[in-house]
Amino acid sequence: MRLAIVLAALPVAVILHSEAGSVAPLVVVAVLTAVTALMPGSAGAALLIGYAALAMAFGEGHPLRIGVLLMIPALHLIHVMSAIAAVVPVKTKIEPAALKAPARRFAIVQVITFGVAAFTAFIPTGAAIGLVELLGLGALTVLVGVVALRI
Length: 151
Prior knowledge:
Blueprint: H1 2-20, H2 24-38, H3 44-57, H4 66-87, H5 100-121, H6 131-149
């Protein structure tokens, strides 16, 4: 599980490095990945996810650029793997059947997330964003949250 955390963090590091063009994101991601892999129950995963999300949000480019769309499942996978690794002892052999339910929830959340991303692609940008569009996105987010809680 801890190796899965490291492998899921590799695309995050590559995307952030390509977006920033410097070595600083690689160092930050490496440190936070090490903390997450060594102590999966710590705040390392939350810090890694938060750092990557903020770096992408304040980066240049379209909000739905390919780097953002690739980052979403990678960060979610880090979250899921660190949650599982936090409760499973290090030397425990994990049967593939035990990962069936988390994998199903992961896939459902990804479908919902990319559905919301597709919906947001049609929201007009600029200073004249209508209140109706923002309310619709808010209602869709609440709906997704309710569905996700029932999974």
